[in-house]
């Protein structure tokens, strides 16, 4: 495909030839495309098929890429009138239930259409069962009339055991069952599913005119129909890479380097003696956390990450995309030198660290763009250990924990600390393990001139929590 780089280094697509009413000519935050396409991703499927989880992941992924997205969950609209309905509420012959559910869907669609009126608001996810053809046709017609494209995403799964596990994992603790016995909640939820099964219609040839992606048995088969443009294909490609097997991702910065000790940024320095000590301790730290699970280690192409990973007894892969943020003309300088030689740049970086691009180098925004294939590969993979650099680690962490662009470049990630991330439904769990090897702190607070500070080591100083907004 014809994807070009803008002078700012952002990716853009040439304008499509046919211009529909859903396109406006503005460029979004990352310049992902020249024209804006507004898309409503319409979730489809029986209850407990992972729709909400998929919806939230898509929104988090797009947010991370600076593509403005929002999820409209019809269940939470329904809950305002009917907070804890019994299964019979979802019986399609229950006229009052039907009326209230249609009203909730209408309220969500109205809010969504209103949300699209704001500039830059590009993708909404309408999270509901949308389980009948008539409901889907109604949504499509409404979106068509507003100039919004629709992408229907169905999750179809008949694995009884998996559905039961889903119910126990997320449904018994849903707001619909607060304060209720989990066994009774699970039983009622199964009844609810039966109500839906009576009228459920899967996407089929009757809807051949619609754009859709049908994910069968958690991605073992994916059927796509009429995917029309770049953003739609990007969302579909992301969905195709998701899996729900239990796994963890470990991330660590490289051990302390000679540049860290001298306070210089960038470069391709060797590990310091203390960094080498961390490298020796790392296999033990990993084994303690991962046990005998199979693991693959990813490093950057820079010496300090390879040296840190050298004692790890696992398959290794090195990625250019994991190299540290390129500090351009400032490479090899200390923060103090940068402040002296490039005072305006130093101040501009503090003002907007996420967007500031070093002269001849990169910004955090640039790093996120080059990390996208890494995130895609991480979604496809199981247990991975990534040994990388401060800025890159912040960006990867921000994706999994939903940290904002304002916060992520300022997060403190100490050296000689292994972070374990375990994605579960709706939330990524985090655990930190410090190796008892002192290291300098390379963290610089906004507005401070601090050189890399000497610290007594992680064990003597509890590492402050990274601001995290996990979902
Ligand atoms: P409801 O219609 O009641 O809102 P839902 O379809 O939105 O249900 P979720 O609340 O998202 O269901 O269910 C989350 C559970 O689904 C998690 O346990 C997750 O592991 C599992 N899951 C995620 N993706 C899929 C999938 N493609 N197929 C089946 N289960 C999935
Ligand atoms: O100091 C270590 C380091 O990895 C540098 O090489 C890099 O420029 C810097 O951290 C990134 O952190 P910040 O964005 O906070 O300057």
From TrEMBL:
Q: Does the keyword Zinc apply?
A: no
InterPro entries associated with the record: 6Pfruct_kin (IPR003094), 6Phosfructo_kin (IPR013079), His_Pase_superF_clade-1 (IPR013078), His_PPase_superfam (IPR029033), P-loop_NTPase (IPR027417), PG/BPGM_mutase_AS (IPR001345)
Q: Which UniProt keywords apply?
A: ATP-binding, Nucleotide-binding
Residue span, 6-phosphofructo-2-kinase domain: 32-246
Renumbered to this chain, region (Disordered) spans: 1-29, 444-471
Residue ranges the record marks as coiled coil: none
Gene3D superfamilies with a match to the protein in the record: P-loop containing nucleotide triphosphate hydrolases, Phosphoglycerate mutase-like
Keyword field contains Lyase: no
Q: Mind telling me which CDD domains this protein's record contains?
A: HP_PGM_like
Q: Return the SUPFAM superfamilies for the record.
A: P-loop containing nucleoside triphosphate hydrolases, Phosphoglycerate mutase-like
Q: Which PANTHER family match?
A: 6-PHOSPHOFRUCTO 2-KINASE_FRUCTOSE 2,6-BISPHOSPHATASE LONG FORM (PTHR10606:SF44), 6-PHOSPHOFRUCTO-2-KINASE/FRUCTOSE-2,6-BISPHOSPHATASE (PTHR10606)
Name of the molecule in the record: Fructose-2,6-bisphosphatase
Which species does the entry assign this protein to? Rachicladosporium monterosium
The encoding gene? FBP26
